[in-house]
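# nightly structure sweep
# worker-07 picked up a monomer target from the shared queue
# config: single-sequence mode, recycle default, output format = structure tokens
# input follows
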Amino acid sequence: NAEYWDFQTFQHYFKQINLSTMIRRQARLRREYLYRKGLEEQERATAERKAALKTAVEDGKKIPTELKKDAVSLQKQMDMDGAADTTLNSVDDEYLYAGVKDPKLVLTTSRSPSSRLKQFTKEVRLILPNCQRLNRGHFVVKDLVEACKSNDVTDLIILHEHRGVPDGLVICHLPYGPTAYFSLSNVVMRHDIPNVGPVQEIYPHLVFHNFTTKLGKRVESILKHLFPVPKDSSKRVMSFVNSEDYISFRHHMWTGPNSNIELSEVGPRFEMKLYEIKQGTLEQNHVNTEWKLRPFMNTARKRYFIGDEETDS
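# output follows
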């Protein structure tokens, strides 16, 4: 019996071998990525120490206590570096090839979506160029991520709801992350906007306002790389305006000459609030949390994380 295999057994055996090989390859690539990421963290910390030492020397101030022990070795490294800028390293940039080719997106929902969430998903698909809408069905998250990776998808987007009201947005960048979690509020569909105009699926121009902090730049990078590079002649504009860590999304078309521009909203509109960024992908549970909105942060009313406080002039 061991010497004879039918075709189905033979096919199943080699399918298992290919699956195990693929899993080992993905694990190896992930380990190499984490190793490069750890090296960059060390280089970034060294660069910050060099910058602090250089500032103290140029200003004629006292060298900080934590740098006194390594001041001589840091100075030698700075002399060897010369005028070269060694603070940036593109190895860890998850969006290294952004702009070289257009992003490829997959949009889906949570299990058993309501009719309102389905309609909102259709409208979000119109917002995002090069996006494919996928019915969730009985797919688990792990199978979704694996299918997206095997088809060279750059971002997986999942919409969530509560009692028929869209209330969550998850953006998972592939193949290594990050994964950003947003809450949604004040969602207004296209048919609820008066005098709404038609939607053109040309590549839009993007406007980001008040993303000034380090976290704000991170969120801006996650959002803007969902969109391909537009043409200069495009008359489609999408704006992300941050106010008190709430990101307002608006979608407009503009017409008219340069001296008399008219904006017409085409919808939808909603507010987003970031509450977590993880460094891995969606199906990974044991990954580092890059940033998370903690309960005690809500008590600091004047503390903002994405942008500066705006004052009325």
